[in-house]
Write a structure and sequence with these properties.
Rossmann fold, 9 helices, 51% helix, 200 residues, 2 domains, alpha/beta
Length: 200
């Protein structure tokens, strides 16, 4: 199995890259964000722990997690974010390992799409790491304009993650998403050609 790490900050364009790799080039993708959502579905132990630590009002009337309310709490307070990480990260890692193992015979590269790859110290697990970057001002504008996020909350989320310099330090390939979506697609296609030609 050719295992490749993919990471990037919030609103950097990482999901666009992941989608292109999967839909156009046939690479398998194990999405840490998807796993993070799955492990807090109703009935999952992590959801009960979150309700216990963060008060019942982070759970909606239908029993699902109120992500916006929880996000506002944890991105405004380091201790709260650490508590959430202690609840979720071990479960995410366990489920990610299971999903990666299930793709052992996939004929093309398997991409682990993880926004916190650097923060969690997992870079050393991947011989190839693709980092998607955009300058913080661009990330902020996208969060406010396209996701209707409060400007202060947007900065809080950006600043809670690793910096672009920290991500570049572990990258074997960097995709700069400062331009248009077609520009990013073209860059992904060129990168796929390069990795396919030299899969080390």
């Amino acid at each position: 199995m050719q295992l490749i790490g993919l990471t990037g900050g919030i609103a950097s364009g990482k999901s666009t890259v992941s989608s292109r790799l999967r839909k156009v080039h046939g690479w398998a993708v194990v999405d840490a964000d998807r796993v993070a959502r799955d492990i807090v579905e109703p009935g999952q132990p992590a959801l009960a722990e979150i309700a216990e630590h963060f008060a019942p009002d982070v759970i909606t009337d239908d029993g699902t997690l109120d992500r916006a309310r929880l996000g506002a709490i944890v991105f405004a307070d380091d201790d709260s974010r650490q508590t959430l990480n202690q609840i979720t990260h071990p479960r995410i890692a366990e489920e990610m390992a299971l999903r990666i193992h299930a793709l052992a015979d996939h004929p093309k590269p398997v991409v682990v799409d993880s926004p916190l790859l650097v923060e969690m110290g997992h870079a050393e697990n991947y011989p190839t790491i693709i980092v998607v970057v955009a300058d913080p001002e661009t990330q902020h504008r996208r969060l406010v304009d396209h996701r209707a996020m409060d400007p202060d909350e947007a900065w809080g989320r950006i600043n809670a993650q690793a910096s672009n310099d920290e991500r570049r330090a572990v990258a074997t390939h960097v995709l700069d998403n400062s331009g248009s979506i077609p520009d990013l697609h073209d860059a992904v296609d060129r990168l796929v050609a390069a990795i396919t030609a030299d899969p080390r």
